[in-house]
Structure formats: structure tokens, C-alpha cells
């Protein structure tokens, strides 16, 4: 049957949310950021590489370019150092002579670099729309409301917040103010052990923000807790969707956030790759779901993954569950050594916000600096920076 419809004029007025998702609406509370002002060179410009080289050479030691592991190859080529978010923030802090820190990563990373570097240093994010969907899942207002819920339930004074590095400066500041610490995927176990030692051990709770998977995986795999010791606080439900009894009984209160890249891997991906490549070692990031982590052979941060592949014997086969830019780069790097490395999932999935940083944005940033103009500066206000730094320093002091 043919369905005939009357043509209706299309309503093409974008909603405020659509504008926000497209990165056109300024929202300082959001990791989504805003669109870059200025004219970017065309991505097809064949001179981009030469222009980036020339601008970087002109700036010399005044500029320090940081490249996160998940960045595109075309950007990594111009990075002075590469690493995960925490390593890069420390690398930036170790270069007090660099006037400009160009952070090729996402917004929360540039904020951390600004917190840890000197007041006279300028931290720049080449595209302000390079945010992080996980960091966006916990806003300052939602977390303050959660703390009120915990206070009402009579558990706040026994709760220590532990926030993943992948969170906004506001959340890091909340954590610092309430006696908590920041953690990375490399030191989450030590951070939880430290947190549980801060109060009476039998009654202490941790509020883990914003990645439920890293919190759950660390508690269960590394600290021997049960899944029943963990509850999930949903900021979109009244009282987080939890009863007072559930809050009182829990050891880990996990914020309902996740990484949109690592959250895509499933148990099916693990089973499929094992069937496809006999003898494959499955190595995944702890931001993956618990069932994926439980089915993997090894679990670790991006730095751990790189080291494991460096140490792997020739002829070994690996399926890696982390961001595709990194996996592809590692596969190319280790192929000549006879190591077979594949992406864990059949579906290609980059971190779309990380990929906002491309060569045109980098060239625009560097050439603007050469012209004496600082674009896309990331600055954390003094009070937020003070409390966020407290939480970061607690992490640095972890045993
Ligand atoms: S990979 Fe995940 S956690 Fe990392 S920036 Fe992208 S969305 Fe955020």
C-alpha cells in the first residue's frame, strides 16, 4: 500500500539542546564547550603539515604541545609528549618555562593542566568543543544535591568522595572540599584504600564519581567487595533512585556515569574475538563494563596497555578494548615485531570529542600564537582551582 502524506513545512529551528550538542551555545558548566571563533584552514590544505612545523619552530620553547593517547596521528605528530590525562598534566607542570601549553586532549584535561601550572602560563585547547561525555554526566548542581541526599540519610559524614580524573574542575573542587581525592585508572585501587582508611573502616563509604564502571571494577576486582556492596546513584531520579536503607548498607555509592567509548564493548565482543582469533589475549581498560572486565585476560590503564604490548612476545595475539586511535597506532607500531593487535569490537568507535582536535585546529592555534593572539584559553577560577588542587595533591601523596 502506498501511503500518501501531505507535505508539511519542516520546522528547522534548532532547539537549544541541539545547538548545545553542535557546540554553538556557550555553556561554561558543560564539557561540550563552544565553537571556535576565527577562520580555520581547510582540512584539505596540503600545506597544513608544513604550516604546523613552521609555527611550532617559530614559537620554539615558548610552546609545549601535549598529546593524549587517543588523539589522531596527524596531531600526535606535533606533540612534544604523549600520555594519559594525568601524566600530561604533570608533564605540563614540569615545564614552568613554557608560556603556552597547547593541550591536544579534552576540556577537563586542559582544566587540570591549568590548575597544576603557574599563573603566568596559558593553557590552550585547540577546539573548545572537545569535551567529554563522561565528565558531563556529573554536574556541580547534581553532585551537591546528591550530598544533600546522603546528609538526609545520615551517611554523609561517613562518606569520602573519590573522583576520577575524567571530571570537571567543579567536581574535583567538590571532592577537595569534602576531604576526598582524585584517582586515575592506574591508581584507583590505592585511592579507594586511602579513602576507606579515612574513617571508621567498618562504616566508611565511598562516593565514586563519575564513572560507575571504574568504581565497580576497582572495588570488586581489587578490593574484594561484592557487587551487592555497590549501589548506583542516578542523578535523574529522586534521591538517586535509592532508599535510605540501600544507602546505609552500601560501601560504594557509584555515580551513574560512563564512558561512551569504553561502554560500547560487550561480553559478545569478547566472545566473538575469542572465536575469531584462537589464542587471543583480551586486554581491556577498566572503564569497560564489569562483565567485559570479568571476561578479559588482563585489565589496565592506557599506560598499562602500552607496557603490556611492549613486553609481549613476538607471535602473540591481542584484542584491545580501548579507544581506536590508540589501538590502531599500537597495531602499526608492533606489527613489524610480529605482534597481532586488533580492536576488540567489530564496530569502529573513536572518541568523537577527542577527534574534534585535528590538524586545522592545531595550525590555527599555533599560527594565532605566532601572531601574538592567545585563542581558546582554559582558565579555572581561583576558588575552584584551590579546592580541586587539594584533591589532586591528595592523589599525588597517595602511597
Ligand atoms: S574516551 Fe571516554 S572518558 Fe575519554 S574523553 Fe572520550 S568520552 Fe571522555
Automatic annotation (TrEMBL):
Chemical reaction(s) catalysed: iminosuccinate + dihydroxyacetone phosphate = quinolinate + phosphate + 2 H2O + H(+)
| Name of the top EC class for this enzyme | transferase
Q: Which family does it belong to?
A: Belongs to the quinolinate synthase family. Type 3 subfamily.
Q: Which GO terms describe its biological process?
A: 'de novo' NAD+ biosynthetic process from L-aspartate
Reported EC number(s) for this entry are 2.5.1.72
Cellular compartment(s): Cytoplasm
Q: Which PANTHER family match?
A: QUINOLINATE SYNTHASE, CHLOROPLASTIC, QUINOLINATE SYNTHETASE A
Q: What is this protein called?
A: Quinolinate synthase
Under the heading Pfam families, the entry gives: NadA
What UniProt keywords are attached to this protein's entry? 4Fe-4S, Cytoplasm, Iron, Iron-sulfur, Metal-binding, Pyridine nucleotide biosynthesis, Transferase
Q: Which residues bind [4Fe-4S] cluster?
A: 132, 259, 351
Annotated binding of iminosuccinate, by residue: 68, 85, 164-166, 185, 285-287, 302
Q: In which pathway does it act?
A: Cofactor biosynthesis; NAD(+) biosynthesis; quinolinate from iminoaspartate: step 1/1
Q: Which cofactor does it need?
A: [4Fe-4S] cluster
Q: Name one GO cellular component term.
A: cytosol
Q: Which Gene3D superfamilies match?
A: NadA-like
Its job: Catalyzes the condensation of iminoaspartate with dihydroxyacetone phosphate to form quinolinate.
Which gene is the coding source of this polypeptide chain?
Answer: nadA
Q: Where are the transmembrane segments?
A: none
Q: Which GO terms describe its molecular function?
A: 4 iron, 4 sulfur cluster binding; metal ion binding; quinolinate synthetase A activity
Q: What is its main location?
A: cytoplasm
Q: How is the cofactor bound?
A: Binds 1 [4Fe-4S] cluster per subunit.
InterPro entries for this protein: NadA, NadA_sf, Quinolinate_synth_A_type3
